[in-house]
Design brief:
Blueprint lengths: L4 E2 L6 E2 L4 H7 L2 E12 L38 H13 L7 E2 L1 E5 L9 E5 L5 E7 L5 E11 L3 E5 L2 E5 L6 E7 L6 H17 L12 E11 L9 E6 L2 H20 L7 E6 L4 E7 L9 E2 L6 E2 L2 H10 L4 H12 L3 H8 L2 H12 L9 H22 L17 H12 L5 H14 L3 H8 L7 H14 L1 H8 L5 H12 L6 H16 L1
Parallel strand pairs: 13-14
Antiparallel strand pairs: 1-2, 3-11, 3-12, 4-17, 5-6, 5-16, 7-8, 8-11, 9-10, 12-13, 14-15
The protein binds manganese (II) ion.
The site of manganese (II) ion (MN) has 3 residues, from loops.
């Protein structure tokens, strides 16, 4: 990141860790827009009463409407509208009073009606935005309600259709092409995911395809007002892979443009194992979807009262949560924002702060420190091993340290039995062996020494063993204090209470100064 450059736009400094992208950014602006399809967490489908369920035998969650039998009529599931409104309110969208469902006509076996019911000219929400950590704002064009398609399975030479997913409610969130690096794009998608999950809009299950992103990527000469030809990379279901897929696509387009070639409009896929994009189909002849308003569904009317009700039902948003951590628990803004932005982390923090074993023993800062330095450190190891990022922890069993175990260790810190340094050894052992914190403490004989007599004796030894350093200290080299503390902690095998050591050392040296 040492080679970042200023860019003459509202984005300020453009930073990327991808060498190929950095190279392209010397001559070009990278322009990225994202479409996210997010499955709505409702019990039933968007236009019929079949269950939304994953995994059932093929074609067991179906009904005449979602498989498009003649004469079957759609009825809107109002819960889907409420969830779309939640997302719209959280991203500060404009919510029009009227939105309209339309038919998007195309022929494919996973779409038994021959058209998808979606929204087009009048979506349920529009003109919102999401802010990134840098302060940069990514504008949201629209949030539309639509139904999912079924699934085609290819078995040997046969193609089979499973319509369990057909008619499941989705929102499609379409951004403006406001992102300029793969990192910005993946941060934007992470933030949408975090919102969708924390608002209960979606379970956000990436593995099952319940939250998937398409990236539109193009390059244009630096500062040019005209957009270059874009490509669309579809259905990437991991934040990390999305970032890489975009980086590879930027590099590919850069090479084409530099060698005098022409980027063609196409739909692309990304092979995460080979770390390579590939062409799926060219879009030379643009589809004509022949959109027209769905005659079997009336327009959706959203009243002010309804918006107010949904707003009142919204759970705490990440920014409000971070502000609460600062005000109530005394966390720094940085720590508060980082914990509030990761669902598994804030759930852990909230549960720990409410745990009776901690009451009055440790403050919020200590809990936050332990969470970040130990629990999330180990979580990162687990995520890395699985090729995942921290946002995807739910996919691999969540945080490695249960709240019960963590608060037990923190209580021992609060009581002075363990130092934070020793707490790290305990938590490592608990995660490695599955033993309880109490057993680990007992087995390792880990008890912090706070006994003043014992500490004073050790300090006497340290000062006696280092007469030159003592003389230097007394002559004004006060920095040597840290050296004495280090020596004492070493002699005490890391078990001394550091606050007591500092106190006793200061006293002993003061006496010598006489
Ligand atoms: Mn769509």
């Amino acid at each position: 990141m040492n080679d970042s450059r200023e860019r003459a736009s509202h984005t300020g400094v453009v930073e990327t860790s991808y060498d190929g992208v950095r190279e392209a950014l010397r001559k070009y602006d990278v322009v990225i827009g994202i479409e996210v399809h997010c499955q709505l967490a409702t019990a039933t489908k968007i236009f019929s009463s079949s269950a939304v369920a994953f995994g059932g035998s093929p074609n067991t969650h179906v009904d005449p409407t979602c498989v498009g039998l003649p004469g079957a009529l759609p009825v809107l599931n109002e819960a889907c509208v409420d969830l779309a409104l939640r997302m719209g309110i959280a991203t500060e969208c404009h919510i029009p009073r009227v939105s309209v469902f339309e038919r998007k006509n195309y022929f494919y076996p996973d779409l038994p009606k021959g058209f998808q019911i979606t929204q087009f000219a009048q979506p349920v929400c529009r003109d919102g935005h999401v802010a990134l950590a840098s302060g940069k704002v990514v504008r949201i064009q629209r949030i539309q309600l639509e139904e999912d398609a079924g699934k085609n399975l290819h078995v040997g030479s046969a193609s089979l259709c499973d319509y369990n997913r057909a008619g499941v409610g989705l929102i499609e969130v379409v951004s403006h092409p406001d992102m300029g690096t793969p990192e910005e794009a993946s941060e934007y998608v992470r933030r949408l995911h975090q919102l969708a999950v924390s608002l209960g809009v979606s379970d956000g299950d990436l593995e099952r395809g319940n939250f998937r992103a398409d990236a539109n990527v193009s390059l244009k000469p630096k500062g040019s007002p005209n957009l270059g030809q874009r490509t669309e990379t579809k259905n990437v279901n991991s934040f990390r892979f999305l970032e890489r897929a975009i980086a590879r696509e930027v590099e590919r387009q850069f090479e084409i443009l530099e060698s005098g070639g022409r980027v063609v409009l196409e739909t692309r896929g990304y092979d995460s194992e080979a770390d390579r994009g590939f062409s799926q189909r060219s879009k030379e002849e643009a589809h004509d979807y022949r959109y027209f308003p769905e005659p079997d569904l009336p327009p959706v009317i959203v009243t002010e009262q309804r918006i107010a009700r949904v707003r009142g039902e919204l759970p705490e948003l990440p920014e409000a949560r971070a502000a609460r951590y600062v005000a109530v628990h005394g966390l720094s803004e940085r720590d508060a924002a980082s914990i509030a932005s990761l669902r598994s982390a804030w759930m852990w923090f909230d549960a720990a702060m409410a745990h009776p074993i901690l009451s009055g023993k440790v403050d919020g800062k200590t809990v936050a420190h332990f969470l970040q330095a130990e629990v999330l450190r180990l979580a990162r190891v687990r995520a890395d091993a699985a090729g995942r990022s921290l946002d995807e922890l739910d996919e691999i069993g969540g945080l490695p340290v249960a709240v019960d175990a963590g608060t037990h260790i923190l209580a021992l810190v609060g009581e002075g039995t363990l130092s934070l340094r020793m707490a790290r050894d305990v938590v490592d052992e608990v995660v490695a062996t599955g033993a309880s914190p109490a057993d680990v403490v007992r087995a390792k004989g880990l008890v912090q020494v706070s006994d003043e007599g014992a500490i004073a004796a050790l300090i006497e030894r340290v000062l006696a063993d280092n007469p030159k350093s003592v003389a230097d200290y007394l002559a004004g080299k006060e920095k040597l204090m840290a050296f004495f503390v280090g020596q004492a902690m070493k002699l005490g095998q890391g078990k001394l209470n550091p606050a007591k050591v500092n106190e006793a050392l200061a006293q002993a040296l003061q006496l010598l100064r006489g």
